[in-house]
Amino acid sequence: MAESKNGGEECPESPTTTETSSNSDATDTEREWAQAAQTQFTKGNYVAALTLLSYLHGTRPKDPKVLMNKAVVEYYKSDLKKTESFRKQLADICTQCGIKIDAVGTGDEVERSVIRFNHCVVLYHLHQYCAALALLEKMYTGLESLEESVGIGVCLLMAECHLGTYHPERALTIITHTETTFLPQPLPHTPSHKQPPPQEKENK
Predict the structure, then answer these.
(1) I need a surface site. Which of 21, 78, 113, 202 has the fewest CB within 10 A?
(2) What does the pLDDT look like over 18-75, one tens digit per residue?
(3) What angle do CA 68, 3, 31 make, to 5 degrees?
């Protein structure tokens, strides 16, 4: 449940979800609801996804994964416009689950890291780049312990925040590290215009 409504790759400034169906104590019906909700979310059918997540919320009212996914889908349904509402929902989830948003630990569970990442997304949309960077940098130091999709999101959002604070050189450093850490081969770079064009060999 982490793609945009047009089916493309998720933007770094978009919130992400967790895999609800991976709960070990989930019933078969709950797993079916979770998988169906993920499918509907990926297709951009947010109303249908919310309906299925509401079923899950009814049987798992305190499950942080369900609460987070429901909040994210509602945010997407608003076309990422109801940022303050999403921020309040995140705060409520943290309160219910006893999560301190700034207390990043190396052994954090996936849903906790996702909640923190989504909090950074909110700060980004509110143009609070320095506040977002303060938390992202804590997560960045424990990058190897994060789920890969979350780790990539952290790196790309950090780059966006550095651009927002007019530090393109820092953004480039993060992008380079992201390539070497998560990609099997570096991304192709556009040749610099400062480089001289190749010269033909002279006939002797």
Answers:
(1) 202
(2) 665 556 688 999 999 999 999 999 999 999 999 999 999 999 998 988 999 999 999 9
(3) 55
As a whole number of angstroms, the distance between CA 129 and CA 145 comes to 24
Size of the chain in residues: 204
Report H helices in the chain.
28-43, 46-59, 64-77, 83-97, 110-125, 129-141, 148-164, 168-182
Domain 20-134 CATH class label:
mainly alpha
In 3D space, the residue among 22, 86, 88 whose CA is nearest the CA of residue 60 turns out to be 22
Residue % of the chain over a pLDDT of 90: 56
Instruction: Give the torsion sign (CA, 5, 29, 68, 2).
Output: negative
Structure tokens at 19: 């895999």
Q: How many CB atoms lie within 10 A of CB 95?
A: 9
Reported pTM: 0.75
